[in-house]
Amino acid sequence: MRDSLTNLWPQVAPLVASAERPSRYLNHEFGAVCKQDADFRLCMVYPDTYELGQPNQAVRILVNAVNARPRLAAERGFIPAPDMCDALRAAGLPIFSMESCAPFREFDVIGFTLAHELVATNVLEALDLAGIPIRAEDRAEDDPIIVAGGPCAYNPEPFTLFIDAFSIGEGEEAIPEAMELMRELRLAGAPRADILRALAAQPGWYVPSLYRVRSESEAQVAGSWLEPLEEGVPDTVVKRLYEGFAESPGWEPCVVPYAEVVHDRLSVEVLRGCARGCRFCQAGMMYRPVRERSVRNIVESVKAGLAHTGYDEVSLTSLSSTDHSQVAQILAELNGEFAGTGTRISLPSQRLDSFGVDMAGLVAGQKKGGLTFAPEAGTQRLRNVINKNVTEDDLFAAIDAAFAAGWRRCKLYFMIGLPTETDEDVKGIASLAQRAYDRAKKAVPPEQRGNVRMSVSAALFVPKAQTPFQWDGQIPPEEARRRAHLLRDSVKYKAVDVHWHDPATSFVEAVMSRGGRLASAWVEAAWKRGACFDAWTEHFNEQAWRDAADEVGLDVEAVAQTTFEPGYVMPWAHISTGASTGWLAKERRRAAEEVTTPDCTFGACSACGACPGLDSSNVLAALRVAAGSNAAGDDASAGSSEACGDAPSNARPSRRNPYISLLTVEDDCVQENAVPECGGFDKGGERR
Amino acid sequence: MTDPANFRLRVTFCKRGRLSMLSHLEIARALERAVRRAGLPYAISQGFSPHMKIAFGAALPVGVGGDSELFDLQLTRYVAPQKALAALQEASVPDLMPSAARYIEHTVPAASVAFPKSTYVARLTALPEGGVVVPETVTVVRKKKEKELAVGEFLLGAMELDSVADDGAVAQLRFKLESKPTGSLRPDILLTNCTDAAGNPLQIATITRMAQEA
């Protein structure tokens, strides 16, 4: 705890001047807030460069949430690009925060958001550049407490050597509360171990040093690989849910960057969670239940956000924005509000079954770039296995609508190596893409047919922790390449491009996704051998990861590729998203039977366990109405979701779902003063 | 302002402090956002990709600041210049702060070409012993090709060296460069090619464009 931080800028400035893209390191953006009145500080780090990290919503949300509390302050941190890492080391300077340009070491707490598996080595790079011991066990009393959260915390084991405590779930309340608790204990002179012990007793916190790892046979009997070493340490850590999400304002102050970043626009989160139930999808499992913000909240948030930031584009973000019960009304109101101002309104994820003529018209107002759809699998059989619940007719209807409305390019996302996939399914991808291209050509005037482009992007299936497919092994990289080549050779049209991701990176992702504690030593060994910025194709160092596996004796092929019976106790069984393991196993068995499970936000509860387990429910702005193939069916077939046929069978259910509640006007804080005044929204560079 | 249908506002602003390290493109984007935050009634181009009608003055290199940089903004209706300036100032960060705004005729040449002569001041942290030696030619790399520029074609008059005492700087070098339709010589590149009498490089703290003239 300290009253002020060291400003490294005078020493850093000459390095910045000769670095690639100095604007990454300048701070002083419009909206940057440097809170002075504090004695306990968090440096919230996105473990990649500024361009990737600055647009991250977790960093924005958590920095604001901590700064809103008295005596607490939060700053942003990013990993310098490789040239700057070298320059800092050569000059003997540490990694620094943005707002104060202060050494990471001077912060009381450092938070990492683990957005994907390949950031692991960057976390080590940051700790090393900070002069903080890489391993939690080597840290001294006055070293910062290192916490982490985000998607990869749902299998935290590969990070356990480096992280003191994990925050599982949504951090809006959990992080500021934990900061206050840690501050009080530090003020009282509590040692580091006691602070971590106190954190472990809080809901949603996992402190790996307070557990013993069981043997495989013990784990299978006990139902968990980890055994608490002390009283008061939970067997299972259940994620935190931010209950107030739906009613909270969609606009909150944000930093407007100078550098061109990956998502250089205003983001307004329109809903959180997705209950479509795709069986490969981790996000669809971990953000349950679904919570929608109201039309009024969203429209007012967009207006306030654009006025305060000066952006000319807003993205209505979520896992599946077209699923919002009132998406058409939202788009219609925003289109009316911003007509003729050159403002773009974009909807990042389009569901095939909800992208009809109406939706095409609503998002067609402006310049048309490419449109992306994700059928995920090439045959209806495999789409039923993965519970994607869209049909060819949904795709063709979406293509008809999009190309008639003026789009000329479309990208289709698929996965290869999904459980039960055969060569027929791979060839099915080529067939589907070619037929989609034919449809697209038919939908445009003859003289423009030459402009029609269809591209196929295929990613290798990565089994993700906390999903029904967590028990399924990944296919080996050689087999992935064979299937990718089969796909490429099956596409006969020149206008259909095929791209696929490097299976070597997906292999590392699979090991990180499914690994236990030994994977943590593997990460450390790979980083020591030079692995860093693994998500950057030009920096990915396959050899370092291979050699590291030999060094630590980890059978990485077994971790990535072994298929277990549903019900086998996996290394992350002590972490709960709310969806029960029993339900995940049931979903895996239904996949084997090619039986689909409908989205519970459109009707019957699918009994995943998240709502009762988290004492919560889906919160919708209005009742949802299924579209496309999912709208088909009448009451006669309702509830017969067991049927398996050519089309997904999730017809409109007749049972009511007890776990759906509707947002009421009284709940909606936008009526009052939901959109914060400019109070916290400072001019960059001015100290407060 | 004689033509009431033409609301072309010329704004003077600074680029200073650490924001001197922004690129021309980053400055352009930041200024557009400041205009939108200011709530000014800016004109939008009609066409396939509508965008704000704004034009920027001659670009400054990354690392070079400016005391009186310019941009021209087309408005759709009259806003008193002082009101427009106040709104822009409210929406701007200190190191990119506008300092003046006035309407100009639509016949006035664009800010990017109207002022080819720029006066720069470089602050030095060491006094160049025996004065500054200016090279006759400077080699630059453009589109991966090396090109030799004759300094005399661009440098107007002599470089003036004065001693000063503030903020770590002990001397300043004032010089004027003219950009030609065929190309220009960047002030930072000229300075890195200058030496003291013994051939040592200059110790440069900051470079600032002080003024632009026709």
Brief descriptors of the model:
heterodimer; A: 688 residues; alpha/beta; six-stranded mixed β-sheet; four-stranded parallel β-sheet; B: 214 residues; alpha+beta; two-stranded antiparallel ribbon; 19% helix; 41% strand
Can you tell me about this structure?
The complex is a heterodimer of chains A (688) and B (214). Helix content of chain A is 33%, strand content 13%. Chain A is built from 22 helices and 21 strands. Chain A has a six-stranded mixed beta sheet. A four-stranded parallel beta sheet of chain A has the order 15-16-17-18. A three-stranded parallel beta sheet of chain A has the order 10-13-14, with helices on one face. Chain A is globular, with a radius of gyration of 25 Å. Mean pLDDT of chain A is 91; it is low at 634-654 and 671-688. Chain B is an alpha+beta fold and 214 residues long. Chain B is built from five helices and twelve strands. In chain B, a hairpin with a 7-residue loop joins strand 2 and strand 3. In chain B, helix 1 (24-38) packs across helix 2 (81-90). Chain B is elongated, with a radius of gyration of 19 Å. The chains are: A alpha/beta (688), B alpha+beta (214). At the A-B interface, helix 1 and helix 10 of A face helix 1 of B.
